[in-house]
Amino acid sequence: MDVSVERGAIPDSTAPEPGGDSPEAGCAPQATPEAARETAPAVTLLICTTCRAPGSDAPPDAERDGARLLASACAASLPEGVAVEGVSCLANCKRALSAAMVRRDGWTYVFGDLAPDSAPDLLTGAALLAGSQDGLMPWRGRPDVLKRGMVARIPPLTLKETR
């Protein structure tokens, strides 16, 4: 069954997930790997849906803070060239909430220490990365949470020189 979430819609946590998967679906329909390479957005924002905010005293079966962050990002107006998807774990639990930004043929950034209301900052950073000429996210204009919370910057597989 093909269930997709339209841009601006908040996913219904009780509805079946696309392809039978968990909340990792994100805001856009999933394409085949071959089609995805040809039509990939400039930047894909990946949000960890299993993260809990530090100090959270929510019951184990409560909606995760990461899933709320994903829903907030999906409900926002997405910048041109940016897609949002959820992933089940970014293995950055000590610095939760976590997200990553993958630029097609560019650098990947991993961020931690986010809050459930960080979606606007993540989308601002994704727009900066998507519009970058050199595939790097500019420091100027980057929201403070993305300056303080950067965990890693990973080079593209096609990198020819060390910077």
Account of the protein in words:
- The protein has four helices and five strands.
- It is α+β, with helices and mostly antiparallel strands and 163 residues long.
- It has a five-stranded mixed beta sheet.
- Helix 2 (65-75) links the parallel strand 1 and strand 2.
- The longest helix has 13 residues, at 119-131.
- Residues 1-23 have low confidence and may be disordered.
Task: Give a nutshell description of this structure.
Helix content is 22%, strand content 16%.
* C-alpha-based Rg, rounded: 15 Å
Q: What percent strand?
A: 15-25%
What's the helix count? 4
Number of strands: 5
The largest β sheet comes out as: 5 strands, mixed
Low-confidence stretches: 1-23
The largest beta-sheet arranges its strands as 2-1-3-4-5
Shape: globular
Keywords for this entry:
22% helix, 163 residues, disordered N terminus, globular, alpha+beta, 5 strands
Please render the helix and strand layout as text.
Blueprint: H1 33-39, E1 43-48, H2 65-75, E2 82-87, E3 99-103, E4 108-111, H3 119-131, H4 144-148, E5 150-154
Helix pairs in contact: 2-3
